[in-house]
Amino acid sequence: MKPRISVITLGVDDLEKSLQFYRDGLGLPTEGIVGREFEHGAVAFFDLQSGLKLAIWNRKDIAFDTNMRQAPPSPTEFTIGHNVSSKEEADLVIKQVEKAGAVITVPPHETFWGGYSAYFQDPDGHLWEVVWNPDWEFTE
After folding, report:
1. Residue 35: how many CB atoms within 10 A of its CB?
2. Are 88 and 57 found together in one domain?
3. Residue 96, pLDDT above cutoff 90
4. Are 43 and 85 part of one and the same domain?
5. How far apart are CA 31 and CA 40, in angstroms?
6. Cβ-count burial of 99 within 10 angstroms (0-12 exposed, 13-18 middle, 19+ buried)?
7. Per-residue CA distances from 5 to 55, 59, 96, 138 (Å)
8. pLDDT for 26-79, tens place per residue?
9. Which residue range(s) make up the domain with 26?
10. Distances (CA, A) of 55 to 9, 11, 41
11. Mean pLDDT for all residues in the chain
12. Do residues 57 and 100 share a domain?
């Protein structure tokens, strides 16, 4: 398999609330909810970097589409890492997401490996890490 991951989809319980969080609170670009004309098709896509997209889709619709029983959500299944270029940027991002309604589970702090990190949960409990790694360089 070649590494061609182009969409990360998060299951959500309230599509409108999650849209507001990611679009209005975090400022991620989107065309809004599309696919409402299809019974299980309402979804929103957010443009990230280099063609990568974040999608939010109702959990019940993911269960239908995959022919699986909808299970209770678990925030510790995975995390999404948002890497930043400095400790100061990490602090700014955490302030922004908190204002948008995120739950800060771990405030910004020095890490054991020499970086700087914090965790927050979106409205559906998905865990995000905001992290500065002094060994990584960023080009915008």
Report:
1. 14
2. no
3. yes
4. no
5. 18
6. exposed
7. 13, 21, 27, 20
8. 999 999 999 999 999 999 999 998 889 999 999 999 999 999 999 888 888 889
9. 7-66
10. 4, 9, 12
11. 94
12. no
Q: Where among 16, 41, 66 does a domain terminate?
A: 66
Question: What's the burial of 113, exposed, middle or buried (CB within 10 Å: 0-12/13-18/19+)?
Answer: exposed
C-beta atoms surrounding 121 within 10 Å: 16
- Per the domain annotation, does 32 fall within a domain? yes
Count of domains observed in the chain? 2
If we measure between CA atoms, which residue out of 89, 3, 13, 101 comes closest to residue 52? Answer: 3
Q: Is there a contact between 125 and 75 (Cβ–Cβ < 8 Å)?
A: yes
Counting every residue written for the chain, the total comes to 140
- Of 79, 25, 33, 26, the closest CA to residue 58 belongs to 33
Q: Are 68 and 116 in contact (CB under 8 A)?
A: no
Q: Looking at the structure, do residues 96 and 46 belong to the same domain, yes or no?
A: no
Amino acid at 43: V
Asked if 53 and 92 sit in the same domain, the reply is no
Both 17 and 62 in one domain: the answer is yes
Measured over the CA atoms of residue 129, residue 133, residue 136 and residue 139, the dihedral's sign is: positive
